[in-house]
Amino acid sequence: MLTAYYNGEIVYAQQAANKNVYLCPACMQQVILRKGNLKIPHFAHMKNSDCINQQDGETNEHLNGKQQMIEFINPHPAKLEVYLKEINQRPDILMGNLAIEFQCSPIGVKRLTQRINGYQDMKMRSLWILGSNYRKKFCSTSMNKFFYYIKGWGFCMFFWNTHNHDLEMRFNCQFVNSKLRYQKMFFYTWDEFIHKLKFPPKNLSYGHNIDNLLKELTNIRNKIFYHDKFALKLQNLCYSKGHDIAAAPLVCHFQNCTTPVVGRKYLYWKILILNYLDNDLQVEQLYKKSIELLKISESYPLIKNVDKFKRQAFSDFLADLCKRGYIIIKENNIYVKKYPAWFHDYYQKIQYIIMKV
Ligand SMILES: [Zn+2]
Fold this sequence. Notes:
Radius of gyration: 26 Å
Domain Competence protein CoiA nuclease-like: 58-188
Organism: Apilactobacillus bombintestini
Domain Competence protein CoiA-like N-terminal: 14-51
Protein name: Competence protein CoiA
Largest sheet: 5 strands, antiparallel
Bound molecules: zinc ion
InterPro entries: CoiA-like_N (IPR057253), CoiA_nuc (IPR010330)
């Protein structure tokens, strides 16, 4: 940590002298001043300390990033490592009612949720900015817990780069034909960042690309080939209806964009819906029946009403089926006008796409 108590006052490690006794603001135990060549000056707990807020073994990235963020926020007042004893938490930076966390080390969704809720209990909001280790894992589903949803910008995530001293905002994160796409923007001051947020981009759509469609198709076939558990389960269901998952109707690929909430499961979901499509089925029945197998994660502690995004993905696909003349929806009942045609197999489907689409 960069700050500690000396004679009841907060001091910065940079300005601290070696001879003094410093205390941790959270546990009030003595901490050691470290001024070496490898890391910037900081305080560390003694070995065997049981402090909950202990961040010993803090990386240089974390120490540097916190200091850089204070400069980023300047001229707005912000404080480093303020201990909030009501919730026993210590945000990296406190800026009025906003807690800013520069998360570099691994954290589970349960612990993250507790900390977000802690701030909420204090009527505070929290901004989670991620370090370099997380940047490398961006496409992994374990990152979903850090997503924000910002109106006009879609699903967003934030990163700090200690080499360039900048805030990176990845926005409009969407799965397009099962692949995560995003746009990015960099900010060098807090004011620049806040100002920009008022002017969201006009167009958030990614459009169609035949190569992506073919990749999606090959991917689902490979999943079967390599015995992916979920894909096999769905394949069995398709077989029971006389279909092959890799030969699903083309209409499964047209409504191709979805939020990270549904993500890579969107294609499976659309195939499930087509399998269950039946006359006089109610929309809500179809929703419940088809989503059951998917087991979509609800772990989005920074987003309100995750359910809304699932329902959106579902109704987008139904709307596409209506538009293309396959179904009609009247008073929440579904009437099938014609069933979308399944291909004989994967090869026939590929050939058709290359020739016609
Ligand atoms: Zn402590």
